[in-house]
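hey
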């Protein structure tokens, strides 16, 4: 594969550097509403009975507060709180399995919070319950997010014994000063040892998470972190852009604005990161993800079969995703559904109804069509318009006339080309893929119209 996977065009990046959805779903979570009913959810469960299942379990607890974090989490040192949580989770799992338990599970992911907040015994309890209620493929992908600070190395042995075969380790930055300022001090040698141990134990792949845009970070210091990461040669890397929204996330108020890198410095860090990682042989998957060429994610993208869901890029797209636990999101049938976000509400709902549905949305024909268009672009950087015409029985240029009009500016700037039946995202358009997808987002347009309209009054 040619090393040139992306072209950095500073002027165009600055021109289009406005915020937009990450499109882990279309329609996005902004469209979820509380009128969505358990009956709609149950119907969706019966819609595609032959689909495999991907399970997501949310464990909300963390031992310590990382100041940058915007996840749904509960900070506590009390291990018994996890026992109480597992009791509620068990009720929800049993109820959901009564609807979906006859499907094969091809994927399981534990996210958080910090799933490794659970002790070995607690982790085994949850795993035994899941295996009892659902039938897993023999080669199912079973992954977990790991905080390297509050864990013994042999926890990896325990997880491997329970069937986990993928790890995602939160590193964020190796610089000690940066770690102090975000309240996440960790031991670099221990992370190196973890990655090594995971390889020895036969984990299929290890992903390391980094964040750029944290206090006191600059191009030079972040380059040092990248060099330390490259020595470990993880199969996958996520390099997230820190979004500073202290009005939304109380913890972020502990981060001082004047210590954050400027917008220019942040762009510089991203530019260097992409150059360093692609130069070291990683494939640019999109937005903030990189993978070694032999990793399943990279292979799927090259074969044009990469998918996207609420956990980000994925290799298995024709699954129904069932999320369980507080705030977990499901993509079942032609609907999305989210559990209660507050732990108290989650507990009382599970106790009363054995499920904790909070809100959701049923997708109509237009949603399903646009979802396919956006997914093709964001995952594979190209769209086969003929394929869409045949699958959805329409004339692309007519149906998407307004969208193609919005795409014009990207075509004029040579970020996108249309030739024959394909829309191609060019190398210098790949970093702006979110903006390109926004052209096909009907909800975004309607919102913009409403805002314009309300400004007039």
């Amino acid at each position: 594969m040619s090393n040139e996977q992306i072209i950095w065009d500073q002027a165009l990046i600055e021109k289009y550097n406005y915020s937009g959805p990450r499109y882990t779903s279309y329609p996005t979570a902004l469209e979820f509403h509380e009128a969505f009913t358990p009956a709609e959810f149950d119907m969706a469960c019966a819609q595609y009975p032959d689909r495999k299942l991907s399970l997501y379990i949310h464990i909300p607890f963390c031992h310590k507060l990382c100041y940058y974090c915007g996840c749904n989490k509960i900070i506590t040192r009390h291990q018994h709180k996890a026992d109480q949580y597992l009791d509620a989770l068990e009720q929800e799992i049993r109820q959901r399995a009564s609807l979906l338990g006859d499907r094969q599970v091809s994927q399981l992911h534990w996210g958080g919070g910090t799933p490794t907040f659970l002790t070995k015994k607690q982790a085994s309890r949850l795993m035994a319950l899941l295996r009892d209620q659902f039938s897993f493929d023999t080669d199912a992908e079973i992954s977990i997010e790991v905080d390297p600070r509050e864990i013994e190395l042999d926890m990896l042995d325990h997880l491997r014994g329970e069937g986990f075969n993928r790890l995602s380790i939160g590193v964020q930055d190796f610089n000690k000063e940066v770690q102090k300022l975000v309240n996440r001090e960790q031991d670099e040698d221990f992370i190196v040892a973890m990655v090594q141990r995971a390889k020895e134990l036969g984990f299929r792949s290890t992903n390391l998470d980094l964040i750029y845009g944290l206090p006191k970070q600059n191009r030079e210091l972040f380059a040092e972190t990248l060099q330390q990461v490259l020595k470990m040669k993880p199969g996958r890397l996520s390099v997230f852009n820190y979004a500073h929204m202290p009005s939304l996330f109380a913890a972020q108020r502990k981060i001082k604005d004047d210590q954050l890198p400027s917008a220019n410095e942040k762009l510089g860090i991203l530019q260097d990161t992409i150059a360093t990682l692609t130069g070291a042989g990683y494939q640019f998957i999109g937005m903030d993800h990189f993978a070694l060429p032999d990793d399943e994610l990279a292979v799927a993208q090259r074969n044009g079969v990469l998918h996207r869901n609420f956990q980000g890029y994925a290799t298995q797209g024709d699954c129904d995703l069932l999320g369980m636990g507080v705030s977990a999101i499901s993509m079942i049938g032609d609907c999305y559904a989210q559990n209660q976000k507050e732990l108290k509400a989650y507990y009382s709902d599970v106790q009363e109804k054995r499920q904790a549905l909070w809100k959701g949305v049923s997708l109509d024909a237009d949603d399903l069509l646009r979802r396919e268009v956006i997914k093709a672009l964001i995952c594979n950087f190209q769209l086969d318009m003929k394929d869409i015409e045949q699958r959805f029985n329409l004339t692309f240029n007519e149906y998407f006339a307004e969208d193609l009009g919005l795409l014009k500016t990207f075509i004029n700037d040579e970020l996108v080309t249309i030739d024959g039946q394909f829309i191609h995202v060019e190398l210098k358009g790949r970093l702006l893929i979110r903006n390109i997808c926004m052209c096909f987002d009907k909800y975004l347009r309607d919102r913009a119209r409403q805002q314009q309209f309300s400004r007039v009054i």
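The CA atoms of residues 416 and 425 lie 5 Å apart. Residues 80-100 form the longest helix (21 residues).
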